[in-house]
Each structure stands twice: as structure tokens, then as C-alpha cells.
Amino acid sequence: MTKILAIAQNTFKEAIRDKILYGFLFFAVCIILFSLVLGQLSLGQQLRTTIDVGLFGISLFSVLISIFIGINLLNKEIQKRTIYPVLSKPVSRAAYLLGKFFGIALVILVQMCLMLVVFFPLVKLQGGNITFGLVTALVLVYFEVLVIISMALFFTSFSSPFLSGIFCLGLFVAGRNANLIAELAKQEKLEALAPLFKGVSTVLPNLYLFYPSGKIVEGAFATVHAQFISSGYLFSTLAYGVVVCAAFLCASIIVLYRRDFL
Questions:
Q1: For 206-233, what is each residue's pLDDT tens digit?
Q2: Are 208 and 214 in contact (CB under 8 A)?
Q3: What's the CA angle centered on 257, arms 84 and 69, to 5 degrees?
Q4: Which of 38, 137, 186, 228 could cross-link with 212 by S-S, CB 3.0 to 4.6 Å?
Q5: Under DSSP, is residue 218 helix (H, G, I), strand (E, B) or coil?
Q6: Contact at 8 Å (CB) between 7 and 33?
């Protein structure tokens, strides 16, 4: 555990110095601030618009940051061969990868907290409150990001940065629309392709579960005023996220053990 924490700490320090991260953070803050402008243009929906656009900005840029860091940090160490002296020490490849995962997860947590420093005051400015529903939505966003990090580490363990980015973005978009793919299987016109759609929707990580709107939101201001997610739904979704993360990390560890670094 000590080795994992040491690698996580080193990963955090390395990632936090990357100037591109602050570029992502800048654009995220811009979108959050722009939600205030859109809210003023809406008719009586200022608070809802600010919440929805703010959550969208936090979710989107957290995902982009996690993909960027997850792909580049591991690939950079492989390309520059700085991974060699680490693995030559009494550090297992599993501990190395888990350290990378937790380090990146901490970076994303810090980035999200910085976004919330802007987002929460805007919500209060529009007359809203920091409710259980809003906090729960943010927790779901963070767990979705953890899944994305594990995906990024898996793809970059055997592929190039460009292809890893394409795979991650593609799987993210498909996962966010897993419910739509499942619905296609029920269409009579597509009955012949029903087995294919069912198989795809089953295999895909269902990232729609973590999305802070859609079916899990009921009512115009549910994300703000209501405890719109039951404790059962919340814990089952978080457990699902942990299982998916574990599956991708286990697959990544297996790939790393099969690669010949030394």
C-alpha cells in the first residue's frame, strides 16, 4: 500500500504541473460562467439553466482531463523509458498501475473542486441552494470520471496515444447512449438487429447511469430542489462504477504483465 501511495503522490505532482490542464480548467470555468449568461436569457428558468449548463461543463471537461492525463502520463513513461527504473525496483506492475490510477483520480478531484469554487457561488447568486440532489449529481459525475480514467489506462497500456484517445472518446459517447442502444433493440423495424443491439448495450459500460439528468431527474428543478435519486439507486450505481473500474484496471494489469519492459 505504501508503494501505491508513493506512486500516486508522484503521479499527482507530475500531472498538476502540466500547463495544458490549466487550459482545460480555464475553458471549463468559461462554460460555467457562460451558464449565468444563458440563464439570464431564458424565461424564468435562470436557475435550472445555470445548474444544467454548469453540470455539463464540469462533466465534459472532467472527462476530457481524465482522458488526457490517463493516456499521456503512462504513455510518456513508456516512451521515455522512465518506467524501467521503477519496475526494476521491488514494485509490482499492479501497484504501479493502481498508483497511477489513484494519482490521476486525485488530480481530477482537485480540478473539480476548483470548478465548484466558481459553480457554487453562481448557484447561490441565482437564488438556489447546494442541496442533496446537486451534491449527489456531482458524486455521480466523479464516479463516471473514475471509470473513464480506468478506461484510459487500459487502452494506453497497449495502444498509441492517438488511438487510445479515439477509443476512450468513442466508448464514452457509446456508454452515455447505452440506454438508446437498448431501446433500438425494442424497435419492430430493427427486429433483425435486436440481438446485436442487446449484446452491445450489455457489454458497454452504461455511463448513462451517472448522467445527472434524463430519467433520474423528475421535474423542472429536480437537480436543485429535490432528492431526486434514491439511496438504493445511488449505492447500486456507485457499486456498478467500482466494478467497471476494477474490470478495466484488472485488464490493464494483465496487459502490463504481458509487456516486456525489462
A1: 888 887 654 433 333 344 334 456 677 7
A2: yes
A3: 65
A4: 137
A5: coil
A6: no
